Amino acid sequence: MSNKKIVVYTGLSLSFDEAKKILDADYRPPIKRGDIIEMVDNNNLPDIIGIIDGQFQHTPAVAHKEIIAAMNKGTTVVGGSSMGALRASELDSMGMIGIGYVYKQYVEGNIKSDDDVAVILDPETYEPLSEAYVNIEYKANGAAKEGIITEKEKEDFLKTAKNIYYPHRTYPRIFKECNLSEDKKNKLIRYINHSVNIKTEDAKDVLKYIKKISKDN
How many whole angstroms separate alpha carbon 136 and alpha carbon 197? Predict the structure, then answer.
């Protein structure tokens, strides 16, 4: 067991209960502007900060400068899955560590918009009430590779999803508005229900990476 102090911001991509099965850490709700700088100002920084989920709709998003300030004080900052993937893609040249598929998609320029990873949440339970576009795209790509839908059908499905404002982006809404046949819809629904949530998988990989480096150092 590591004796390092670890703070992780999650709750949307991965619940606290699931996260605790992987890593012993101080788990906090999705990060917002000021959370890290408060620890910097109070000289209360942990050894490692994991950023998975973040807030940005009703409160300003975590600032680049506060992440940099923490790293300059010697804190290792690891990000992936959602807000963490976005900030890691912007700050990896400064030392922030990016993990996972979503991070790589940002780095490679395949994801350009913040709302590709955005969802709305239940403020009390942090349960997602919409679906992230990056998840929808990942599952649709998989379905096309499996031959469940054609490339053209995939593109039309993703265009429908993209055109829905992210707080309202749910599978029932997408399937209601897309032009797939009923047979294709049913097959795609079954595939989606049994395929992985890539943001959740990335979140787990962030925790596994933190667990490894906390033991190595």
Answer: 9
Contacts 24+ apart (CB under 8 A), 149-156: 149/180, 149/184, 149/187, 149/188, 153/180, 153/184, 156/180
CA–CA distance, 118 with 199 (Å, rounded to integer): 11
What pLDDT does residue 143 have?
A: 98
pLDDT digits (tens, 9 = 90+) for 40-88: 999 999 999 999 999 887 788 999 999 999 999 999 999 999 999 999 9
58 contact partners, CB below 8 Å, separation of at least 6 = none
User: Would you say residue 94 has pLDDT above 50?
Assistant: yes
What single-letter DSSP state applies at residue 6?
Answer: E
CA–chain centroid gap for 4, Å, is 24
* Alpha carbon distance 136, 163 (integer Å): 13
Structure tokens at 128: 């997602």
Closest CA to 210 of 35, 9, 17, 42: 9
CB atoms within 10 A of CB 79: 33
State the Cα–Cα distance between residues 71 and 19, nearest whole angstrom. Answer: 24
Assigned token pair, 187: 């097959």
Handedness of CA 199, 131, 137, 62 (dihedral sign): negative
* Interatomic CA distance for residues 13 and 179, integer angstroms: 29
Query: 147-199 pLDDT, tens per residue?
Result: 999 999 999 999 999 999 999 999 999 999 999 999 999 999 999 999 999 99
